[in-house]
Amino acid sequence: MELGHVVVLAGGLSYEREVSLRSGRRVADALRALDIPVELRDTDATLLDALATDPPDVVFPVLHGASGEDGSIRDVLELVGVPYVGARPDACRVAWDKPTAKAVVARAGLSTPESVALPKEIFHDLGAASVLDRIVEHLGLPLMVKPTRGGSALGASVVRDAEQLPAAMVGCFAYGDTALIERYVEGTEVAVSVIERGGEPYPLPAVEIVAAGGRYDYTARYDAGDTEFVIPARLSPEAAERVTAAALTAHRALGLRDLSRTDLIVTPSGEVHFLEVNVAPGMTETSLLPRAIAAAGLELSHICRDLLIQRFT
């Protein structure tokens, strides 16, 4: 099947704009390597007119952060009747909100760290010190603090001492109005990507993440050399099976389609804990999905083309 006109959407106005632009260029270059006509577009005031004037065969959204992953841009694409790669808006909204996603996968049988979601207003209205004391008393230490919505570890931090918690909350609220505070689980951090082939979810090799500073933060994610990636992850055969099963369960339970990446922690005893899922995985040179595709012996260009064809048909 011939793809005559493909639009790759990248950029947007979120904190992750620069990463999205890098991802978009990577996808566009991969498709052009197969002689597929590609137009790389930002989400600006000219987008809707362009889609209406010259409708593409398929759109490949590579938008990270708000609007790109919360379902809103996909809502617009559905309004104008343009097919696109990736999860539909309702599934995006569920996956984008971390506490909601955790609740859904927990009902599906996955383990996820105990947590509390705390809006900024409650933090102030009830008295920060009192609320934080109760959190530490209930969840213990260490803790992971991160925005309930967002990616690339922006606003996320590990709290090992109760005195660090107020600053962690302030840092978190700089990137979102609600903080997710969850019990920090020590172990091996892995990411398992899922792509759909022939309508069926296909798990890629688990990627083990070993950040130089011990934290897979924004810098570690996108600066080459700051993180070691081990593929396949150094897990026992049983644990490897469990992380694969967990990623497939999350993909299905959340109603995702085409591609996703699930972040997990494996404890020294082999227990697997769901952390979060990404409906628009990064496609940069340092991103995990392209690494997993290569480790599986597949070509990024072929996978991107196949995902487009699935939606075009």
From TrEMBL:
Domain ATP-grasp as annotated: residue spans: 102-309
GO molecular function, one term: ATP binding
Binding site for Mg(2+) 1: D263, E276
A biological process term (GO) from this entry: peptidoglycan biosynthetic process
Subcellular location: Cytoplasm
UniProt binding sites for Mg(2+) 2: E276, N278
E.C. no: 6.3.2.4
Protein name: D-alanine--D-alanine ligase
Gene source species: Actinomadura rubrobrunea
